[in-house]
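dumping the sequnces here before i forget
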Amino acid sequence: MVDYHLHTPRCCHAEGTPEEYLAEAERKGLREIGFADHFPLGLLDYVPRAQVTMNPDELWQYIKQIEALKGFSKKVDIKTGIEVDYLPGTEEKLAALLEEYSFDYVIGSIHFIEDWDFTHPFYAETYGDLDLNKLYRTYFELVWKLCRSGLFDIIGHIDVIKKFGYRPDGDLEPYWIETARVLKATGTCLELNTAGRDAPVNEFYPHKRLLEACFKSGVSVTMGSDAHGPLQVGRYFKEAVELLKTTGYKEVTVFEKRVMRSMPI
Ligand code: ZN
Ligand code: FE
Ligand code: FE
Ligand code: ZN
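..and the predicted 3d for all of it:
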C-alpha cells in the first residue's frame, strides 16, 4: 500500500515530525509513502486569510528534509511530493516554479473558489448562502481546468466540495462521467483520499460512483490519507484497498521524478 498525501508542520495546521509519520507507516506495513505538504501560496502571490501553507523560503528546506529521509527505512520507500493549490491564472508562473524544484510527483488540489477557502471549517457557513447547483458547476469546471493545465500528476481529494455535507439535489452522474473523461484525456491520476471519512461528509473522496466511472474510463489511481498528524498515516486503508479491488482496480500508481509506474495491490 502507498500513502502519497502526508503533510508536515510547515503548513501551520499539521503536527508531528516526518520521522514520526514514517514510523507509523512502518507500523502499518505501508510499502511506500510520499510527503505532499502545501506549496507556498506566497510564491503564487496569493495571501489567504488564514495561513495554510509553508512560507516561500521553507520550500528548499522541506525538500532537503524529505530527501534526507529517503533511505532511512529498509521497509518503506519515501517520495518527495507537493500539494499545490490550483489557482486559475497562475499556470505560467507555477510551470516555471515547478521546473526549479525536482519533485517525485505534484498533486493539484482546489481549496479556493476566488478568495473563499471552502475546505476550511472557519468559512463553512458560506455554503448555506449559496445555490449548490451553481457551486458544483463552478467547482467541477475548476477541476477540469486543473487537469487541462497539464501541470499536475495527480488530482487531490477530487470532490472535496462535499466536505461539509452540502450537495445539490440533482443527479451528479453527468459530473462523474465528464470528470472521468477529462482525467483520462489529460493523463491525470486520481487520488483515493481517505480523509473525507473524518470530515462531516463521512465518505472517501471520490464518491463511489466517480471511482467507478474512472475505472471504466481507464483512469489510474493512487492513495492518500491526507495525514495532518502521524496517527492519520494510512487511515482507513484496509477499507480503501477493498473498495479499489471491488471496483476492479488491480494496481495503484506510484511516481519517481514525475514518471509513473504501476504497483500491484
Ligand atoms: Zn492541509
Ligand atoms: Fe488539500
Ligand atoms: Fe493535503
Ligand atoms: Zn489535502
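The pocket of zinc ion (ligand 1) is lined by residues 7, 11, 13, 38, 228 (CB under 6 Å).
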